[in-house]
Structure formats: C-alpha cells, structure tokens
Design a protein that fits this description.
Strand order of the largest sheet of chain A: 6-7-8-3-9-10
Order of helices and strands of chain B: HHHHHHHHH
Radius of gyration of chain A: 19 Å
Shape of chain B: globular
Shape of chain A: globular
Distance between the termini of chain B: 44 Å
Strand content of chain B: under 5%
Strand content of chain A: 15-25%
Number of helices of chain B: 9
Distance between the termini of chain A: 47 Å
Number of strands of chain A: 10
Oligomer: heterodimer
Largest sheet of chain A: 6 strands, mixed
Largest sheet of chain B: none
Radius of gyration of chain B: 21 Å
Order of helices and strands of chain A: EEEHEEHEHHHEHEHEEH
C-alpha cells in the first residue's frame, strides 16, 4: 500500500465479543487499493468474524471500519445495501442457493440486487461460469448436483459476477484436494487481476496464502500480531508466524486441548 | 425463597426480551413492504405453497370435523329434543371457530415447519449472509413474501374449509341422521350471519400471519447445524399453535364477548 493514499479498507480498534469471549480485541489493519491481503491464523481466532464485521453481517462493539475513507460502522440499512454493491464474497461452504439453478445463483446479485433483466443477467452468468472453467450446461444444473470443487467455482463466479471492487474469500481451498485447491487459487488470482479488485482472504492453508497474497497478516487472540509481504512470511522473525507456518505444536500459540 | 423469586424474575425478563425481539422482527418484515424492490413472483410462489398445497389436508380435516360435529351435536341435543339445532350449531361452529382454528393448526404443522426448516437451513449454511452480500435484504426477499402470503392465503383456505366443513355436517345430517335436505339447508342459511363468516376470515388472516411469522422468526434465528434447524422447526410449530389458540380466544372475545 502506498504511503499517504486512502486505504481501500481501514479497520481500527475493532472489538467484538460473543458473551464473555472477546474475539476481536482492538484489531487494526489496512488494505490498499488492488492489494491482495491474506489473513492467517488458527481456527477460532476470529478471521471469519473480522470479515463479517467488514461486510456488516456482524456489528462490532467498538472500533472503526472505513471503506474508501467512509465510515461503515452504524451505517443505515439503505446505505449499507448500496455499499454491498462494492463487495463480492466467496463463502467457506459456498452458500449457493439450493432452490435456484446454477446460472440463477451466479446472476442473483445482478437480477435481485441491481434489477438487471434475466436474459442479460443469464448471458453474464454464463460468461462468468466460463471464466471459472464451467460450461453452459452446468448452468442448468442445481447446486446439489455439483462436486465440492465445482460448487467453489460457481461460488467464485457468483462473487465476481457483479464485478465488485472488493472480494472476500473465506477459506477458499478448505475441503478441496490439492489439485483442485491449486485450480481455485489460480482462478482467484486471475479473476482478481482481471477485475482490478482488492482481495481479502482468510485461510490457514499456507500454500494458498503464499500463492494468492501480496501481503500476509497473522491474527492471534483478536489482534494482528504480524503483517508483511507474502515473500517474507517464511522469514518473518515473529514466533507466532514461525510456529503457524511450520505447523509446530510447541511455541507461543497454545491450543486449548484437554488432556485425554 | 429469594432464589425462587430471582428465577421467576429472570424468566419474566427473558419472556419480555423474546417478545421484544419477535415484535421487532415482525416490524422489520412489514416495513419492507413500504419501499422497493418488491418481489411479487415470490409472494405468488408462497401463496401457492401455503394455499394450493394445503388444500388436501385442510379439506380433509374440515370435512371430518363437520361430520363429527353433526354427530356429536345430534347426540347431545337429542337428550332435550333439540335435534333441529344441529345444522345451526354445525354452521356457526365451523365458520366462527373450527374452520379457522383447524386450518390454522394444519397450516402451522405443514407450512410453518417447512418455512422454519427452509430458512433455518439457509441460515446455518450462510445462504442468508450470501443474500446480504448480494445487495438483497433478507427481510424483503424471504420474510415479507411469506408474511403477506400467510395473511392473504389462510382466509381463502378457510372459505374452502367452511364450505367443506358445513358440507360434511350436511352429509351426516341428511344421510345418517335422517334430516330433510331442504330443511337442513334452510336451517344452515337462516341462522348464519355475515359477522360469523367475517370474524372467521379475520381470525384466519391473523392465524396465517402468526404461522408465517413463527416459521420465519425461528428459522432466521436457528443456530448450530441440523440440530438447530430441527429445534427451529419444533419451536415454530409449537409457538404458532399456542399463539393461534391464544389469539383465537382474544379475537372471539373482541367479536362476540359483549353478546
């Protein structure tokens, strides 16, 4: 991110708790225009909560979230709905609408969110399906008829269909075999570059993180404990990052595991 | 003693909080009706799902209810030579009470459960969050069409239930109990007032709204995977059934309490 420029996403002092459990504890992070930021961290450290707060799906107790310099915490529903047009999201479980055909899933944001005619939206949906390597015949299937990898690709096509400025990827390769995971990583890089979008991904798949990130940040106990260029992640000098990257049980990160 | 009072107080405040959440949910759903975009196709789809597909179950329960009512009232009234009141009792009971209540309970079991399961599954699989990220308000897209469809469709179902229920009484009255067909129909028509039908239809509208509201509310707030969806379905049916019976009493008092 260039110094002095307004960040695409600026999060400061973000706090979010669920009951007595404080998940985000004064978190600060920025993401520059057209930057691909990957947030890594163990399970249950609040990565998904952070993305959901930025998207407005969860409401933080304190802190600020600015998109293009505009404060979004406490934004009225109408404004929030308009702001959503800047966003695309690939959910961990794909979250495809099982009552709709595949092409209707991809075209959903165009038809319902932007009021586009179905015929035109279908044309765009088929183009986006082709961009993720799926033929027009797949468009006529139901999501339940697809494999996990195909569902992820449809979800990616849906996330990019409305050509958003910011795309969020929640564990994009979780549950996929290594080859399909690599296909998804390549598609993410291709789609984000072609759109000129800003990308924020969360993952604990280090292969994926190294491949798709310009910058990597590590989240631990509700705070960013390290942030730097993707190429520095293996040589960060940060004990949390070192332990996570090398997948060691010993280190400053203590998993809450009960003795057998 | 203090522990007991504290638990009663806590339960009372929890009840108030739940009521507040439910009212807020209903208002958010209804508020969506006052600003575009609107989804008439979704409302129509819900009307078909609630109304058309509930016709067999509502029709069957209505006809058997009418038949049993005729039999039981005959048995009772025969003890003091008032058999001729059977037709009147059947038509008043069906239009005022049994038509709307039985249709409401049947629809709560069939449609309320389905709504809670569908929306609950959407919740636990992130589909509702996906709607939001696709610039679509879940209250406008999911909740409002169901609330309106419930409000519109149940009165239509009750019209059918009333006719079938009265017909059930007529069948038993004329073929089993030996009433003259023409006099049975005359009795039915003579003592039926417009308000009897209207009150039943108003009740049906309220019951339809309750069924849809409970289905949407419990589905929308379901948590924790398949078990959460199962719980949401149970809660939707149980709470809708209780609220239907409670509101039936209140509406009956409002319509006929002074008579």
């Amino acid at each position: 991110m260039s110094d002095g420029a307004v960040p695409k996403i600026a999060v400061h002092g973000l706090e979010k708790s669920f009951g007595p459990k404080r998940v985000l504890d004064g978190l600060d992070i920025d993401c520059g225009v057209r930057e691909s930021l990957v947030i890594i961290g163990g399970s249950g450290t609040g990565k998904s909560v952070l993305i959901k707060c930025i998207l407005g799906l969860l409401h933080p107790e304190a802190g600020s979230i600015r998109i293009d310099g505009v404060e979004t915490v406490g934004m009225p529903r109408g404004e929030r709905t308009r702001l959503m047009q800047k966003f695309g999201m690939l959910f961990q479980g794909s979250a495809l609408f099982d009552s709709l055909l595949v092409w209707e899933n991809v075209a959903f944001g165009l038809i319902q969110g932007r009021g586009m005619e179905r015929a035109k939206a279908r044309e765009i949906a088929l183009t986006k399906l082709a961009a993720v390597g799926l033929g027009a015949e797949v468009g006529e299937l139901r999501p339940a008829e697809l494999s996990g990898g195909m569902q992820k690709r449809v979800a990616l096509a849906r996330a990019i269909a409305a050509e958003p400025e910011i795309i969020f990827f929640d564990e994009p390769t979780t549950g996929l075999d290594p080859i399909m995971a690599d296909v998804i990583n390549d598609l993410i890089i291709k789609c984000v570059r072609e759109l000129g979008a800003t990308a924020v991904s969360i993952t604990h798949d280090m292969v994926s993180a190294r491949k798709i990130a310009d910058r990597i940040a590590m989240l631990h106990r509700g705070k960013i404990v390290w942030s730097g260029p993707a190429e520095d992640v293996d040589d960060s000098g940060n004990p949390f990052v070192d332990q996570f990257v090398h997948g060691r049980a010993e280190g400053p990160i203590q998993m809450e595991v009960r003795a057998l | 003693m203090l522990t007991f009072l504290a638990s009663v107080g806590a339960a009372f405040f929890a009840f108030l909080a739940a009521t507040g959440r439910l009212v807020r949910f209903a208002l958010l759903g209804l508020a969506a009706a006052f600003a575009p975009p609107f989804y008439p196709r979704l409302i129509l789809r819900q009307i078909v799902a609630i109304g058309y597909y509930s016709l067999p179950v509502v029709g069957l329960t209505a006809i058997f209810t009418g038949m049993v009512l005729a039999l039981q009232s005959y048995t009772g009234f025969a003890r003091f030579n008032a058999e001729s009141a059977v037709a009147t009792v059947v038509v008043l009971s069906v239009t005022r009470e049994l038509g709307p209540v039985i249709a409401g309970l049947m629809v709560a079991g069939r449609v309320g459960a389905a709504m809670a399961a569908e929306i609950g599954t959407m919740r636990v699989t992130d589909q509702i969050d996906a709607l939001t990220t696709l610039s679509t308000d879940p209250f406008r897209y999911l909740v409002l069409p169901r609330l309106l469809a419930g409000l519109i469709t149940l009165p239509l179902l009750v019209v059918v239930a009333d006719i079938i229920g009265v017909f059930g009484g007529y069948i038993v009255g004329t073929y089993k109990l030996g009433f003259n067909a023409a006099s049975y129909l005359t009795q039915t028509e003579t003592y039926l007032e417009r308000m009897d039908v209207i009150s039943g239809l108003v009740k049906a509208g309220v019951f339809g709204f309750i069924v849809a509201l409970m289905g949407c509310y419990h589905g929308y707030h379901s948590r924790g995977g398949a078990e959460g969806v199962g719980n949401a379905t149970t809660h939707a049916v149980v709470s809708a059934s209780i609220l239907i019976l409670l509101s039936n009493y209140l509406l009956t008092t409002a319509f006929f309490g002074s008579k």
